[in-house]
């Protein structure tokens, strides 16, 4: 498996593939949380993240196998999000390796903590989200707080199909 931060000059076809992969994975893992035909991201948004040096990809035998967005929140905290592994590559450790890559990149940039946000329905249990919560905990992440999604992201709230919160996880990178 090859992991790399995409260069700002990456081909538009790569941006299109990353966007399609993220939307495909999130359409399944967040089914029931969003109104029909709500995409997780757009090519324009992904292109902006790539220009900012925030998108890493995993490739297996040259083919896109996964992607993650890595950003710096403050002087001591990095964050990863938009983590997506191609369903055809599940079980190869793509997600785990992308998380490690994000942690290493943040640590190398001087961050001492890593954060992620997990969108969860407020009134019912979503199987994918339940699985991810356990997986993140096994990777060493701990819940720091829970917040109302609509309160922090009012521009996205109308696209929700059900009331949601986001659970914030953090991990010490020391």
Q: Helix fraction?
A: 25-40%
Taking the alpha carbons of the first and last residues, their distance comes to: 26 Å
- What is the correct CATH architecture? 3-Layer(aba) Sandwich
- CATH T-level topology: Aminopeptidase
Shape, per Cα inertia axes: globular
Question: Key features?
Answer:
single chain; about 170 residues; Aminopeptidase; 5 helices
Describe the structure.
With 174 residues, this protein is α+β, with helices and mostly antiparallel strands. The protein has a single domain (2-172), classed as Gcn5-related N-acetyltransferase (GNAT) (Aminopeptidase). 33% of the residues lie in helices and 31% in strands. It has 5 helices and 7 strands, in the order βααβββαβαβαβ. The chain has a 7-stranded mixed beta sheet with strand order 1-2-3-4-5-7-6, sandwiched between helices. α1 (12-29) crosses α2 (43-51). The longest helix is centred in the N-terminal third of the chain and has 18 residues, at 12-29. The protein is globular. The relative contact order is 0.16.
Task: Reconstruct the topology from this structure.
Elements: E1 2-5, H1 12-29, H2 43-51, E2 55-60, E3 63-72, E4 77-85, H3 94-108, E5 113-121, H4 127-138, E6 142-148, H5 149-152, E7 164-172
Parallel strand pairs: 4-5
Antiparallel strand pairs: 1-2, 2-3, 3-4, 5-7, 6-7
Summarize the structure.
The protein is globular. A 7-stranded mixed sheet has the order 1-2-3-4-5-7-6, with helices on both faces. By secondary structure, it is an alpha+beta fold.
